[in-house]
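To whoever is covering the structure queue this week,

Two jobs came back overnight. Logging them here so there's a record in the thread.

Job A:
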Amino acid sequence: MAASEDPSERSPYRRILLKLSGEALMGAGGAGIDPETLERFAGEVRDLVIDGLQVALVIGGGNIFRGAGLAAGGMDRVTGDQMGMLATVINALAFQSALEHIGVDTRVLTAIKMEQLAEPYIKRRAIRHLQKGRVVIFAGGTGNPYFTTDTAAALRAIEIEADVVMKGTKVDGVYDGDPMKDPNATRFESLSYIDVLNRRLRVMDATAISLCMENRLPVMVFKLTGENNLIRAVRGEPVGTVVS
């Protein structure tokens, strides 16, 4: 982008929070982190930074550990959730490494103190990093059990005054049914927060949607694996569903 070009001419947003599931990093594998997938996502985030956007991320940990699943099998829920928070830190460090490998200045901020690995989360520090053009990755969830990474994403987006939460998924938006099972499922171009809650649509969990509704924070749900879909979504093209 030319130095004189206004980023707002390329995107309606100035500061975004991108929410990725841990499963998105698996690629075609059944678990863990696929290097090629990680490299591709890092490249797309770099393109956003080049476009002049301030970018923050929240990455789930489901590719490594799912605390809720083991809790259902008898493990203490708090312990399981704490292990899940640590899994998000692993993914955040991997993404940081991939970004820095391609020249993107990055900081990982954690809700759980672990200074030898990352900085502790402080709102003003996070915003300052973003203002300096660094990608900020929030890890460790909210630091509390019983809250999902969707809720962590909504909370952090509100705190840093992001313009939108971009949620990358396996499908190209929000449907009135499961498009993987029902060929007649209809995709919504836009929805209200109340519609999502009343219809119990699987966008984000109810706590996250309620936070977004109370703070008028829009959520864009789009297919992460489509060609340049992240760039297109950030530039305002109709590639998913907007909840507002």
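Job B:
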Amino acid sequence: MEEEIKKHSKRIYRTLKYSKKIFSEKTTEIFIEIFIIVFSITLSIWLHSRSLHSHQQKETTEFLSDLKEDLNKDIVIMTEKRTQMAKTIKQYSYLRNLTEERIDSLTNKKAGIDISVRIVIRKTNNGNYEGFKSSGKIGYIENKKLKKLILEYYQESIPSIEEAEKYFNLRLGKIDDLIFQDKDKKKKFLDPVLKMTFDAVIQIAQDNKNNYNFISKDAKEIISEIIKEEKK
């Protein structure tokens, strides 16, 4: 392209300096050469833009395909954590409602009381998203709705549930401290501080359970939108 522009520029120069043609003929020739140069540059820019756009969309397609796999993994993990929250609610509700009579009955039967403290350990599959975002390519996604859903998922929904999980684990640590203190069984489970901590953890677990459900729905909506893009 550069050589073509040089070639036509030289023709303009020669026409202006050496041509013995009349002014109108010179003007016509120069206009034609300028038109050719402008057209060549415009065509080159257009072809480059098309090539660049095609490359960007290829990268976007690959990213969305990988993202779909990540979201499906997230949904599986969210389902597991929802089950964990349900078990936590059931177990701590039982412990919260233990009465003196019930504890005596269990003691007489030499029955143990099931106690477990399971913190939430969950990893968001966000490697592909972070890589695509950090390279400044999120703007390649032309579907505005899809782009908005993805950004909301990773920048709002996921950080929100991560903070809730941290708080949940913090309260579990309090239960862990209270339960494994050197106290007799009755004194331990009738401790009002422990009962209040059970209440707090049960409520947080219920909130987390609901949040896992909402976030799974968000992930499914993104997947649905990606599938629509793949069919275009």
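Note for Job B: The radius of gyration is 34 Å.

Please reply-all if you pick these up so we don't duplicate work.
Q.
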